[in-house]
Amino acid sequence: MILYETISQPLIFLYIFLIGIGCGLVFDARNYLTFLCNKNKIVGVILDVISGIVISLLFLFCVLQLNYGQMRFYLILGFGLGIAVERFSFGKLIAKLSLRCYNGFRNLITQKYGKRKKEIKEKDVGR
């Protein structure tokens, strides 16, 4: 005989797994913001602390809502597995895509304004 509390455990595991994938996207956003700030260590530490607090509060809130506050091993396992799957699959794809966009934008700016700097230097040399 199955108890009522154990019937919904696979569904709760799936929800927690999907929430873990979403939290992995938070880490990707943190990495991207750190990259845009020229990999500044202070910004990296601040974003680490903020993302860690946000993710742990989100996990705690989900456990309270989905499993009535009962912390079980399969919840931690599903959450960690969701983050790991995102980081090793979608995370790599997002990192490559963001790097490609960043390099394209930087090349566009260099083409647009790089010629201008060269013209200004030539005018200064001619004086």
Shape: elongated
Beta-strand content estimate: under 5%
Rg (CA only): 23 Å
Counting DSSP H or I runs of 4 or more residues, the number of helices is: 4
The unreliable regions are none
- Coarse structural class: mainly alpha
Mean pLDDT: 86
SSE string, helix = H, strand = E? HHHH
Amino- and carboxy-terminal Cα gap:
94 Å
What is the makeup of the main sheet?
Answer: none
Q: Report the count of strand segments.
A: 0
Helix % is over 70%
What would you say this structure looks like, in words?
With 127 residues, the protein is mostly helical. Helices cover 88% and strands 0% of the residues. It is built from 4 helices and no strands. It has helices spanning 4-7, 9-36, 41-66, 73-126. The longest helix is centred in the C-terminal third of the chain and has 54 residues, at 73-126. It is elongated, with a radius of gyration of 23 Å. The termini are far apart. The model has no long low-confidence stretch (mean pLDDT 86).
Topology diagram in text:
Blueprint: H1 4-7, H2 9-36, H3 41-66, H4 73-126
Helix pairs in contact: 2-3, 2-4
What keyword list fits this structure?
127 residues, mainly alpha, 4 helices
